[in-house]
Amino acid sequence: MLRRAGLSGLVDVDFGDAPTHITSAERDEATGVRALSESVAAARALAAALQNGMSEHPLHRPVVVGGDCSLLLGVFAHLRAAVGDVGLWIVDGHPDFTDPRASETGEVADSELAFLVGGGPAVLTGLGGSTPMAKAHQVGLIGHRTAGLDPESLAELGRLPGAVLTRDEALGADFGVPMWLHIDVDVLDPAVMPAVTYPQPGGPDFDQLVAMLTPLAESPSLVGVSIADYRPDLDPDGSGAAGLVALLGRLL
User: Fold this and answer.
1) Domain that residue 72 falls in
2) Which keywords describe this protein according to UniProt (predicted)?
3) Assigned domain for 231 exists
4) pLDDT by residue (tens digit) across 214-228?
């Protein structure tokens, strides 16, 4: 759907789809993580695809599009091994810092930020060859909701390390390292983007998000961008896809 809306026209080279397939609903007994072995395989496949793309086009910055935020494990598995310290601007309606053993679903996308900064099973936290793949003080969490939260969401927010910068603090910080920008589509208000898995009211519209992220997209520290959680099955007329492609076009 995003390609039909013009996504490929925003980049010089479209490398197609990485072989990342997660279908299992089985949860690992020890960790609570759903589809653990498939998630590891998917992260490694994406890391390999990203390595190939960045090696073949070293002067280009990659744009990675995926079904959910678990793609960040593959991105940082490559970046950690190939680049070293890389920081993360994560723009998300949720902190993605759930303890998978307490999560209703056990999905990696509920907890990928926790895994990136070193909290979780070693098979995930060590995907980049060393732990953590991203250092907490080099992470800026932007756009997550902090008001009207249910007890589970409050508990997730409470698990965030104090070193992670949030909101305005994160937007204005100089992290001193190359930075990756990740956008979870559910950061947007569902009034303008209902085609997401976990919609939350209180988010920005497209114009507000562009204004927020333009300084990050223009930063000389930016090494790449990813976007996740767009649901084409919830976007029958394609208006959500068109809005997202327009958003990326304005940013990139």
Assistant:
1) 16-251
2) Hydrolase, Manganese, Metal-binding
3) yes
4) 999 999 999 999 999
